[in-house]
Known about the structure:
The structure holds two protein chains of two kinds.
Chain A: E1 4-7, E2 10-13, E3 19-25, E4 33-38, E5 45-49, E6 53-54, E7 62-67, E8 70-75, E9 84-90, E10 97-98, E11 102-106
Parallel strand pairs in A: 2-11
Antiparallel strand pairs in A: 1-3, 3-8, 4-5, 4-9, 5-6, 7-8, 9-10, 9-11
Chain B: E1 3-6, E2 10-12, E3 18-25, E4 34-39, E5 45-52, E6 57-60, E7 68-73, E8 78-83, E9 92-99, E10 106-109, E11 113-117
Parallel strand pairs in B: 2-11
Antiparallel strand pairs in B: 1-3, 3-8, 4-5, 4-9, 5-6, 7-8, 9-10, 9-11
Amino acid sequence: DIQMTQSPSFLSASVGDRVTINCKASQNINRYLNWYQQKLGEAPKLLIYNANSLQTGIPSRFSGSGSGTDFTLTISSLQPEDVATYFCLQHNSWPRTFGGGTKLELK
Amino acid sequence: QVQLQQSGAELVKPGSSVKISCKASGYTFTSYDMHWIKQQPGNGLEWIGWIYPGNGNTKYNQKFNGKATLTADKSSSTAYMQLSSLTSEDSAVYFCAREERYGRGFAYWGQGTLVTVSS
């Protein structure tokens, strides 16, 4: 199975900060990487698909980059409503595997 | 609009089985893959498997072979997941999620079903 390692596990930032979350795959997954946001008590929400494509309706402050084994989710200017846990998911091969998550809180 | 409505919370005994449903509406049920995902309290997400309701094809995470069985009823646009031989390790929230074409992610999710395994 492909292992997805997310960093950091926990992140504290201020409103307006630029935030980056990283995801590293244990082998090449091309650009087959999606990012999800999960707020407490809710289902995950798709933010980014195929590494850098913004899902419809998601604010443009969210962006994704990377290919191969290293990927990044960036929030250009953190907003209070962005407090959540963020997960990456590889869909290059079976089984699909998620990163361990990054919990983002406001400082 | 696309909706996935899951069945309610379940409290079940160790060793028993449970069947969770995910009723789809607002789209052609047989045209999209349906995935199932497990989330234990405080933990991350685990992919369980996938079913294509159009022909019933399935694929499972090997970890869940023998544990989860995925089916779909085209007449009611409902996907099901049966979990068997339940233990405390199966206590979790289970989500169904529709995958968009061309690998464009799980854009629609059910609200989740909490399964608690306890005597």
